[in-house]
Write a structure and sequence with these properties.
Number of domains: 3
Distance between the termini: 55 Å
Radius of gyration: 25 Å
CATH superfamily of the largest domain: NagB/RpiA/CoA transferase-like
CATH topology of the largest domain: Rossmann fold
Oligomer: single chain
Strand content: 5-15%
């Protein structure tokens, strides 16, 4: 627990003072903010649709067992094989078996946060299998040996100059290459991998129960190539991704694209319902769907936190969060960063080890305001803090500090006795590292209460 917390403090302290990092993030998020209003203009009443989407996800999660069984039955009839994985280890073992059976040497995968969650690339590398990221942002991060920085935009923290330098070092390209030239270089490299790969891996933005299908949303076409070119297609999806009906996509696809990238709809939207059928000319010969729990049923069993499973991974809360914009995605040290990551990570992993993430928030409520499915994120962060305290996961010094604060708040005279000079000395002496990048904190000599009384007497 101490190591995880100290790593977070160390990384966030460095990033918060990194002006160049902040410039890049503000520039990229600024571009996002400029296009989102145009995307929202397609909706007559965006808040009503957000509420409707939330209700659909509520229905799906309240009947999750039935929805998943319906999905399994429907997609199995079309020849796909459904595998249930209780945790990351089971999912990885199933993938290993499939790779061994297919004598897989090269695997291509499209952007998928759930594969990051189970650390698929590192696992495959140990098995001697080349796993290639085909999303451009993920490919950049893989070349740099870094995990994704953002749920939707993996390389958001990099400028075009950073990418040109990286490609020059790793691929021997011109260090002054333009973004267009770099994209063509990546395209040429990745196209060869599609041909070589025995297996393609994708995630699923949505699992559709009534038709037994998965829906994949993307802007580059790499997910289509990853699922169609190799002979075997493996889908890895969290069980919370289920929606009851294919008709629900008419709502969720525009919401995801608008809140994720500001588009009215993304460039490629695919519905995959199984391997290649006898009447079809292309597509994979075999399809496996791994339904991953990995802590999700723990959240499902928590009546108050269950709402966090409604998330459709649009990333809007990250772009809106003042903490994320200052400390960056890697500081969190978890697969899922930003407000949604701070809510679910302590439950997916270990509350004692990860409870500090729930305090990485100003509780301004902006994450809740922008959430595509109206999850009350700031309230869930507070609930996490409450659960940690109720479980006794607080240190003795923290307990004593809050008891002293409580007593001070209950006695106005005590508060007034601690004047401005004393407050300044105590606070500036206690906050370590504050003055390294900031000025001292200065409290007024008299409290508001004292000033109010003096004004009224006069």
């Amino acid at each position: 627990m101490k190591e995880t917390f100290e790593n977070f403090i160390a990384k966030s302290t460095v990033k918060a003072a990194d002006k160049e990092h902040r410039r890049k993030i503000n520039f990229n998020i600024g571009k996002y903010n400029s296009v989102v209003p145009a995307g929202k203009s397609q909706f007559l009443d965006v808040n009503l649709l957000r509420e409707k989407a939330k209700n659909i996800k509520w229905k799906a999660l309240e009947t999750l067992d039935k929805q998943l069984e319906t999905f399994e039955a429907n997609i199995s009839r079309k020849g796909a094989k459904v595998i249930w994985a209780e945790n990351a280890e089971q999912a990885l073992e199933e993938i290993r078996k499939i790779c061994e059976e297919k004598n897989c040497k090269t695997l291509v995968k499209s952007k998928s946060m759930v594969t990051e969650e189970i650390h698929l690339n590192a696992f495959l590398e140990k098995q001697g299998i080349e796993s290639v990221e085909t999303d451009l942002g993920e490919y950049i991060q893989q070349l740099d040996g870094e995990p994704p920085y953002h749920i939707v935009t993996p390389a958001m923290h990099k400028s075009k100059e950073d990418v040109a330098k990286l490609f020059s070092e790793k691929l021997g390209t011109d260090p002054k290459a333009t973004p267009e030239e770099l994209t063509l270089i990546a395209r040429k490299t990745l196209r060869e991998k599609y041909i070589q790969a025995e297996i393609g891996v994708t995630g699923a933005n949505f699992i559709i129960a009534d038709t037994g299908s998965i829906a994949v949303t993307e802007n580059e076409g790499n997910a289509r190539l990853s699922s169609a070119w190799p002979k075997t297609h493996i889908v890895i999806a969290g069980i919370e991704k289920v929606i009851p009906s294919i008709n629900d996509l008419a709502l969720f696809w525009p919401l995801l694209s608008t809140f994720g990238t500001g588009q009215r709809v993304t460039v490629y939207n695919s519905i995959i319902s199984g391997p290649r059928q006898s009447t079809e000319k292309d597509g994979p010969e075999e399809m496996y769907v791994i339904l991953l729990d990995n802590g999700r049923t723990t959240i499902l069993a928590n009546e108050k936190q269950r709402e966090s499973l409604y998330c459709i991974r649009c990333g809007a809360c990250l772009n809106a969060c003042p903490v994320y914009k200052n400390i960056g995605g890697h500081s969190y040290g978890a697969t899922y960063s930003g407000p949604i990551g701070s809510v679910i990570t302590p439950h997916l992993k270990n509350m004692n080890e990860w409870k500090h993430l729930s305090y990485a928030s100003s509780l301004c409520g902006n994450c809740t305001e922008v959430c595509a499915v109206k999850i009350n994120l700031h309230e869930l962060l507070l609930e996490n803090r409450h659960e940690a305290v109720e479980s006794g996961l607080t240190s003795f010094s923290e307990k004593m500090a809050w008891r002293m604060w409580k007593q001070g708040m209950l006695h106005r005279k005590w508060m007034n006795m601690v004047g401005g000079k004393m407050k300044n000395k105590v606070v500036n002496g206690m906050i370590k590292g504050w003055k390294e990048y900031r000025g001292e904190i200065h409290f007024p000599q008299k409290s508001f209460n004292q000033q109010w009384k003096e004004k009224n007497k006069s």
